[in-house]
Amino acid sequence: MRADAARNREKVLDAARELFATQGFEVPLDEIAGRAGVGPGTVYRHFPTKQALFQAVTETRVSAMIASADAPADDPRQALFAFLTKMADEASVKRDMSDAITVSPELRKSLHKALGGLLRRAQEAGTVRADVTATDLVVLMKGMLQSMHDGANPAVLLEIVLKGLQSSRNP
Amino acid sequence: MRADAARNREKVLDAARELFATQGFEVPLDEIAGRAGVGPGTVYRHFPTKQALFQAVTETRVSAMIASADAPADDPRQALFAFLTKMADEASVKRDMSDAITVSPELRKSLHKALGGLLRRAQEAGTVRADVTATDLVVLMKGMLQSMHDGANPAVLLEIVLKGLQSSRNP
DNA sequence: GACGATACGGAACGCACGCCCCGGTTGGCA
DNA sequence: TGCCAACCGGGGCGTGCGTTCCGTATCGTC
Q: Does B42 contact strand D, using a CB cutoff of 7 Å?
């Protein structure tokens, strides 16, 4: 790959990281190109589609988050809650976190799987209500993460959800 | 108003009620017109904008819901929870309920006000956590209502939110 | 039954956006 | 330094949708 190509690729990624984070997936691709100081054609030379660019930007962060979910878990409920907290923290600052669930089926599946494991263990321990499914959790989080960009207090929202998830027998 | 005009107005409203309910606000206006058996121009003769049509459809239902919030409230927490349950029930069947909060500033304000009153009374009674604002609640509900159309279990979602809202001192 | 006002339908406009094409330019190797 | 392949920029295409315009049809009155 030529030197200027590599340079432009990085410029595009930088611009995309910033604009996806502040405006979410619906930011026009031309705006990303403009921010990067290149034409739209250049973006498409490096990424076949807008989705692919988005995925390249978010995949790293999501994967890192998910990897941290496999950490040692003496308290399964704490492990699940810590993960949800991490998601919320990320989403309260970067707007693309919530879009990732909607836009990229791969990322959604990864999250579903990771949450499913954490959820199952916590439910087996009896500390999280048993009638919640992984799908419920993914979807609920998506809604909550989106809500954070509408003037709500992220910390309060998270506390509400965490408390609501606890098993009735363990208040 | 001419007889055929009134008839067409009703046909448009009927079609809009059905399609907004099943597909939400993003249903193309041409589809509503087609469903009503009229041209797009006819829709615009009766409603100045797509938003106005949407509001005409949802306003009635939302107002009715809000009116029921002023019912006698011996238990403020129960009053609030009953209202939230009503919202959730409505949204689990009709997709336009959640869009109303986003699309129509008027409806959003009405809801905000109604929820604010219910919330304040419940908080004064000490049965709902004191750090939640009306805005938090509106936004949280919006997210939850939207989540109901993504494969989650509406009843479970609602229970989680209701439990999460309770004051820590009243489990 | 004729006439004017009212309403209708659907073609057309404007706009936004994802995506592609092509003439010109630039980088790296011989 | 010269040449070719790789790359760039941005104008342009196709699409979907909200909205408008206007020739035609219909209603209701005299």
A: no
Q: What is the pTM for the complete model shown?
A: 0.94
Long-range Cβ contacts of B78-84 (<8 Å, 24+ apart): B79/B118, B79/B121, B79/B122, B80/B115, B80/B118, B80/B119, B80/B121, B80/B122, B80/B128, B80/B165, B81/B162, B81/B165, B83/B114, B83/B115, B83/B118, B84/B141, B84/B158, B84/B161, B84/B162
CA A71 to C1' C14 (Å) is 55
- Closest B-chain CA to A137: B152
- Average pLDDT over chain A, rounded to an integer: 96
Q: What is the pLDDT of residues B105-164, one digit of tens each?
A: 999 999 999 999 999 999 999 999 999 999 999 999 999 999 999 999 999 999 999 999
Is any Cβ of chain A less than 8 angstroms from the Cβ of B157? yes
